Amino acid sequence: RPFESHFALGPIYSYTARPSLILAQHRQLLRQAAAAGGRDDDPSPPAVWSPVSLHRRATHSQHNGRPPPPSAGPPSSCGYLDEQFCQVEDLQDDASPNFTEEVVTLFFKDSARLISNIEQALEKYPKDFSRWDAYMQQLKGSCSSIGASRMKSECMSFRDCCGQGNPEGCMRSFQKVKREHGALRQKLEAYFQLVRQAGPAGAATRPV
Amino acid sequence: MTVEEVKLQAKVNGGHAAKDQFPVGMRVLAVDDDPTCLKVLENLLLRCQYHVTTTGQAATALKLLREKKDQFDLVISDVHMPDMDGFKLLELVGLEMDLPVIMLSVNGETQTVMKGITHGACDYLLKPVRIEQLRTIWQHVVRRRSCDAKNHGNDNDDSGKKLQLVSAEGDNGGVNRNKRTSRKGRDDNGDDGDDSDENSIENGDSSTQKKPRVVWSVELHRKFVAAVNQLGIDKAVPKKILDLMNVENITRENVASHLQKYRLYLKRLSNDASRQANLTAALGRNPAYVNMGLEAFRQYNTYGRYRPVPTTNHSQSNNLLARMNSPSAFGMHGLLPSQSLQIGHNQNSLSTSLGNVGVMNNGNLIRSAHMPLQDTSKCFPTGPSGNSFANISNSTQLVTTNNLPLQSLEPSNQQHLGRIHSSSADPFNSFVSESPQFPDLGRCNTTWPTAVSPSNVQELGQKDRTVNGPKLEPLSSFTEANGRIPLLGNELQSQVASLASSGLPMPFSQEAVPFSYGSGTNSRDMLNNNIALNNSGISSSLPNLRIDNSAVPRQTLDGGNSGGVASPLQDGRIDQQAVSSQLNFNNDLMGTSSRLQRGLSGGLDDIVVDMFRPDCADDGVPFIDGDWELV
């Protein structure tokens, strides 16, 4: 498999080296580390390179976790992006060559608005759980549309707190949502940069 | 062909392409307020080679659907939208366009899914939607078509007449068939160029033309009533009505069956009215029509789901309608609502004063009065004689013109009632203290369905459903919310409703201030007021009214007033009951009204208590689809 062979090549620290390769790996990283056992600190890398470390280096991200496997799990064990993102990418074709980036841009624009709504609601309507929940549900829907799994998980735990009537829990969870939002934005920005650099070759390495 | 080419072709070909290469080119309307999701969905659908139109607003979606009725095969809608609840959109689409609707939501809770299904969604998808799921959604379109086809066999060749035999009611296929054939007929008139295309399509065709059922929405019913009134109830034949209505996707058969129901309803009203001795004496008019109208109105109130009100005396209806049009009569009507059915009942009593209330108006009023407050807006056909009118009228501006503009059952109808009142009977003015809520009655005059705002109707419809079927016209105003229907009952009901069931979204209840009430008082108060106000035999009707308010205005009338009204109420009630009551309240009301019917025993207290029985709040009560349920 292309990825594995690339992994064998050694760590890649710079963007300039084999962007397509990096891109491919990046994609892999962003999506759940499928093979990973799930343990946060040491996902078993399918290849030589720990996806986490590669990811970190490639994107200079500050995230402290690693792309764990499938989104269904608790936030810490979710990949940043899940299969839905693949599906979105698959929709990109000659007719809409920048589809993915367009969707992602749209997502961040809209989600920023939703987050700000929630923030206002948290302040303006204290303990109005049903309102908070309704807003958060909108955000959750958005997240699921592009496959932002970690963010989605945090949204779900926020809603759980709402259900429990736990305002502090809601606040905490909301902070996490914002963090995940920021982290994802960074990652995707970096990702798209790679895509651009990789050019047509990058597209060719797209999984599936 | 590359994907792009296919897409392009699909787009270009639009509707007709769909037929040829179905499911390729199937025309989907996607509605979702989330732009990200909408964009992804759109592209997923395009990838499936469907023809896609998107909008972020439910209102826009409806507009698109209404404008181009046959331009879409399928609707996919999100559940949570800011401007309109997805379920409401779902219902509307099902009612008006009868297209398959797929719900979409991030919320997969059983309860929500259940709600979607009971509201008529043909599928419920969870976000994020996978393309695999979308590849098979065309099955819903095919299923509908084949259902229709199956039900009606090969009706493409049927003549319109033949279809007439087929009752559209409750017959999915029938309506569709009727529609198709009727369309064919209309083709002859050159009305619709597409018809021939459609008609030539076999049942199993991928055409989206087929709509299994005609749902008599308030708006539709309003047009129907307007057409009928224009033609004159005696002369109204389905074909002419159909032409006057000028609505697509309705066959003559649909109209015929609807007309039948309407006639029964009117008949029932007139029967009730004739029993209203008091009213007769006082008013000297024939409120029968009013009652009937009201009832029918009520029935139609329910959002598109009418309980066809059995038309009682068609001929009477005519008279009544005529009388109703007279302004004075209208005023009476105003009273009716509050007074409940009496007025309606007293066809005789309605006499000139009432009857004159814009003939139509009267009819409407009465009808509304009779119609059990379907939920909120039921106008009680004021049973109690003229007094009730007075009550009603006072506040409503029903009598703005001699012809109570029933047509616009806007919430402001309530005012109508007052007006009507004023114009018709001065003495009544004193009675009507507030009836601002009754304007509906006034409105009912001209057309049943007057201007019931769809949204209102929707709401009320639900409520109303329980109450009355077809008589909704006036009720529709009710639904509009505020029980425009001057019927006291409406107010009462609304009040009761509001009191009894918090869940009732009756706009009407808020304002429904039964004329006799005083704003916001209980029905009980109203009742008291009514009693006080009613010099004539209204008092007896009052109890009825109360009860009726909640359920069937008619009932009250029957019970108390001159008894004439009762029947419509009863009928109305029955209808209501038939309709799955959206609101328990309605159910309660019905119970009360039935009690009334039994002779108002138990006194007011019982009734009132009964009315205020907490509503069981059945949000989930689905609309009774099927439209023509006569309970």
From TrEMBL, chain A:
Entry keywords, A to Z: Cytokinin signaling pathway, Two-component regulatory system
This protein's name: Histidine-containing phosphotransfer protein
PROSITE patterns: HPT (PS50894)
InterPro entries linked to this entry: AHP1-5/YPD1 (IPR045871), HPT_dom_sf (IPR036641), Sig_transdc_His_kin_Hpt_dom (IPR008207)
One GO cellular component term: cytosol
Domain HPt: 96-191
Cell location: Cytoplasm, Cytosol; Nucleus
Comment block on domains: Histidine-containing phosphotransfer domain (HPt) contains an active histidine that mediates the phosphotransfer.
Region (Disordered): 34-76
Pfam families attached to this UniProt entry: Hpt
Keyword Transcription regulation: no
Coiled coil feature spans: none
Function: Functions as a two-component phosphorelay mediator between cytokinin sensor histidine kinases and response regulators (B-type ARRs). Plays an important role in propagating cytokinin signal transduction. Functions as a two-component phosphorelay mediators between cytokinin sensor histidine kinases and response regulators (B-type ARRs). Plays an important role in propagating cytokinin signal transduction.
TrEMBL record, chain B:
Record localization: Nucleus
PROSITE patterns: HTH_MYB (PS51294), RESPONSE_REGULATORY (PS50110)
Domain HTH myb-type, chain residue ranges per copy: 208-267
Biased composition (Acidic residues): 189-200
Compositional bias segments (type: Basic and acidic residues): 148-161
Keywords of this entry: Activator, Cytokinin signaling pathway, DNA-binding, Nucleus, Phosphoprotein, Transcription, Transcription regulation, Two-component regulatory system
Sequence positions bearing 4-aspartylphosphate: D78
Protein name: Two-component response regulator
Region: Disordered, residue numbers: 148-211
Domain of life: Eukaryota
UniProt cross-references to NCBIfam families, sorted A to Z: myb_SHAQKYF (TIGR01557)
Entry similarity comment: Belongs to the ARR family. Type-B subfamily.
Function text: Transcriptional activator that binds specific DNA sequence.
